[in-house]
Request: fold
Amino acid sequence: MSLDLALYQPDIAQNTGSMLRLGACLGVAVHIIHPAGFPVSRQTLKRGGLDYVEHAEFHIHDSYEHFTQWRESAGRRLVLLTTKSSQSAYAVQYQDGDVLMVGRESAGVPDSVADGADLRVRIPMRQQMRSLNVAMAASLVLGEALRQTDLLQLLQ
Reply:
């Protein structure tokens, strides 16, 4: 198994492209959960993902419900990155098979989605700061999860 990255109804094509590039470089599949705030195509993703989009493994889910069906049937744990958690992303134990999810740039995820997460984590930051860019947040936590699960060693 491996780690996956899920994007809940992404708003910004450039961020989605950047996360596809991240997935391509680190060997992590990316799940795009519709509806997105832009037409999802290789052309719209190219600005952020450059030619890395061609090397990315990504899956499109028509809805959060379809994504949840896939995840549950695969027996995968959902780890939500959220500013609404008090649990540090660096104080938890990640597992091989975890799916790390980031929310919409404009609104995060609805409470019903957050409630369905197996684990909710937050990146520690200065109190007066609201949040990081979603692609940066995904990079930080994905890097930590890959380190903890020894999956980074497979890339060398």
